[in-house]
């Protein structure tokens, strides 16, 4: 899935929705994206999909990256995408990672998740995907 290149630096909101209390992976990804030259806003633990969407809209984000380890990925991604549509912000690209079974990935992609990274994905794979699909034209 390719998107129109944003003007200026790519702005990415990284969110940890739900009750999951582990954010080491999200922080590592946020740092890697920042080190790759992107503007990154990390929303912190225990955010609702509503809070993450509100942050993305207020921050004029180009992408939202969700980290889900709780097993509630189907519900959380679906709710986030519905909220983006309701707020006329479906142009914000959603990607994610965490403990997500392989068989759920095609379903998530069908509902609009651009990319899902599974546990152990190296950070250069994530930053490379962002660079390849959302590169700012020079």
Key phrases:
138 residues; alpha/beta; Rossmann fold; five-stranded parallel β-sheet; globular
What do you see in this structure?
By secondary structure, the chain is of the alpha/beta class. The protein has one domain: Rossmann fold, CATH 3.40.50. 40% of the residues lie in helices and 17% in strands. The protein contains five helices and five strands, in the order βαβαβαβαβα. The chain has helices spanning 24-35, 49-58, 73-86, 105-111, 123-134; strands spanning 11-15, 39-42, 63-68, 93-98, 115-117. The protein has a five-stranded parallel β-sheet with strand order 2-1-3-4-5, sandwiched between helices. Helix 1 links the parallel strand 1 (11-15) and strand 2 (39-42). The longest helix has 14 residues, at 73-86. The protein is globular. Keywords: Cobalamin, Cobalt, Isomerase, Metal-binding. Its cofactor is adenosylcob(III)alamin. It holds the Pfam family B12-binding. This is Cobalamin B12-binding domain-containing protein. InterPro entries: Acid_CoA_mut_C, Cobalamin-bd, Cobalamin-bd_sf.
CATH topology: Rossmann fold
The CATH architecture can be named as 3-Layer(aba) Sandwich
Instruction: Give the biggest beta sheet.
Output: 5 strands, parallel
What's the overall average pLDDT, rounded? Answer: 92
Rg, alpha carbons: 13 Å
The amount of beta strand, in percent, is 15-25%
Distance, first to last CA: 21 Å
Percent of residues in helices? 25-40%
Element pattern in H and E: EHEHEHEHEH
What is the level 1 CATH name?
Answer: Alpha Beta
Structure annotation, total helices = 5
Number of strands: 5
| CATH homologous superfamily identity | Cobalamin-binding domain
Count of individual domains: 1
Side by side, the strands of the main sheet go 2-1-3-4-5
User: Given the helix and strand composition, which structural class is it?
Assistant: alpha/beta
InterPro entries: Acid_CoA_mut_C, Cobalamin-bd, Cobalamin-bd_sf
Cofactor: adenosylcob(III)alamin
Pfam families: B12-binding
Keywords: Cobalamin, Cobalt, Isomerase, Metal-binding
């Amino acid at each position: 899935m390719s998107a129109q290149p944003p003007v200026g630096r790519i702005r990415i909101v990284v969110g940890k929705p739900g009750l999951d209390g582990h954010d080491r992976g999200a922080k590592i990804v946020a740092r890697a994206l920042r080190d790759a030259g992107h503007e990154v806003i990390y929303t912190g633990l225990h955010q609702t999909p509503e809070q993450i969407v509100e942050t993305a809209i207020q921050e004029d984000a180009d992408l939202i990256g969700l980290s889900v380890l709780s097993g509630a990925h189907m519900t959380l991604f679906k709710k986030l995408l519905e909220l983006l549509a309701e707020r006329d912000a479906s142009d914000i690209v959603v990607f994610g990672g965490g403990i997500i079974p392989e068989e759920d990935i095609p379903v998530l992609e069908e509902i609009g998740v651009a990319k899902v990274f599974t546990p152990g994905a190296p950070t250069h794979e994530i930053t490379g995907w962002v660079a390849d699909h959302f590169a700012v034209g020079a």
